[in-house]
Design a protein that fits this description.
Layout: E1 4-9, H1 14-25, E2 30-37, H2 41-50, E3 55-58, H3 64-70, E4 76-79, H4 81-87, E5 95-98, H5 106-114, E6 118-121, H6 125-140, E7 145-147, H7 150-158, E8 167-174, H8 184-188, H9 192-195, H10 205-213, H11 215-228, E9 235-239, E10 245-251, E11 256-260, H12 266-274, H13 305-316, H14 320-336, H15 344-355, H16 364-379
Parallel strand pairs: 1-2, 1-5, 2-3, 3-4, 5-6, 6-7, 8-9
Antiparallel strand pairs: 8-10, 10-11
């Protein structure tokens, strides 16, 4: 494998920092051309120095001077999302790791796709909000998209030996989050400190809350629909608390192929960056004699209504998934600020989905307009 140059959108978040750990373990295979962050200036500077990064983007104007003053003149410091959009198109860049959180990742990811870059996609909101547009652009620009989500990476791996055999079902596994065994009455009283205690994965605050509500799994259903070209009727969610099986593919003859491993996001990150090569990685290995049991449950959509809202959004189509995503972003932010209760999140999303103006075949401008309108509509409900 020849060395690849990477750009990381969102280098200071959970996926971004683990991406840099993959680079650290494989310095002969990867160099870093650009890293970006919204406001985490100190960590961004630390990363730029540690990995000798020539281009750094800080999106928060209030943090620009702090970053500029902390880095040598040889490092170019850029301000704003538009700078990131330009840098991901640089001829030096081979792979763009799309690890920004939320809708903000759509524009730079599309910019990288239009330049024909390899996309290691961790920003699921890109496909939730604009799946049809993104996949169309990726096909037009011959930009391969390799999934970084552990579940979609698992499906991708399971499909490598499928040939032309049709898929009957995709089984997306879900840990069930911190509230899996809680009664609905207790979940209704849950605070952010409890929702942020994920039993298996170490993730950022927003995605951890999404996991607790199972909105994250709903996003993954929509993401799978676009990545693998299957209708929602062929995507099944199964709760698997041990998080050992990362997802499964079932074929017409009844055979089910699964991908297993310890919960470690560096594996799908490394595979997306180096595909088709698998890289040696430090970390815990799976020992079957220590597993004892693997358990599976149907998800409880009464306790976790966000999951059903995602299926509803797929069925309605158009700009509704975008509105759902925007309403969720606003509601999660409010929950993290203790402004609303846990079940106010799905209530807000449902109301926005009902009230937003429907656009059957949204163009990119419609997507951005829908996001802004739905976000502000959600905020008005708090």
């Amino acid at each position: 494998m020849s060395a690849k140059t990477i750009a990381i959108l969102g280098s200071t978040g959970s996926i971004g920092t683990q991406t840099l750990d993959v680079v650290r373990q494989n310095p002969e295979l990867f160099s870093v051309f650009m890293i970006s962050a919204n406001s985490s200036a100190a960590l961004l500077v630390e990363q730029a120095l540690a990995f000798h990064v020539p281009h750094v983007v800080i999106c928060n104007p209030a943090k620009y001077q702090e970053v500029r003053d902390a880095l040598p003149a040889s490092v170019e410091v850029h301000l704003g999302i538009e700078a990131a959009c330009g840098l991901v198109q640089a001829p030096e860049v081979d792979v763009v790791v799309a690890a920004m959180v939320g809708f903000s990742g759509l524009r730079p990811t599309l910019s990288a796709i239009r330049a024909g870059k390899i996309i290691a996609l961790a920003n699921k909101e890109t496909l939730v909000a604009a799946g049809a547009l993104v996949m169309s652009e990726a096909a037009r620009c011959h930009a391969p998209i390799y999934p970084v989500d552990s579940e979609h990476s698992a499906i991708f791996q399971c499909l490598q030996g499928a040939g032309d055999n049709p898929v009957r079902l995709i089984h997306l596994t879900a840990s069930g989050g911190p509230f899996r065994t809680w009664p609905r009455e207790e979940i209704a009283r849950a605070r952010k400190e409890q929702a942020l205690k994920h039993p298996n994965w170490d993730m950022g605050a927003k995605i951890t809350i999404d996991s607790a509500s199972m909105m994250n799994k709903g996003f993954e259903v929509i993401e799978a629909r676009w990545l693998f070209g299957l209708p929602a009727s062929q995507i099944h969610v199964v709760v698997h608390p041990e998080s050992v099986i990362h997802s499964m593919v079932e074929f017409e003859d009844g055979a089910v192929i699964a991908q297993l491993g310890c919960p470690d996001m560096r594996l799908p990150i490394a595979l997306a960056m180096a595909y088709p090569r698998r890289l040696p990685l430090e970390g815990k290995r799976l020992h079957f004699s220590e597993l004892h049991a693997l358990t599976f449950f149907e998800p409880d959509k009464e306790k976790f209504p966000c999951l059903q809202l995602a299926f509803d959004a797929i069925e309605k189509g158009g700009n509704i998934p975008c509105a759902m995503n925007a309403a969720n972003e606003a509601a999660v932010a409010a929950f993290l600020k203790d402004r609303i209760g846990f079940y106010d999140i799905p209530r807000t999303i449902s109301r926005v989905m009902e009230r937003i103006g429907y656009v059957e075949n949204p163009a990119l401008d419609d997507i951005f307009a829908t996001h802004e309108e739905a976000f502000h509509m959600a905020e008005s409900l708090f």
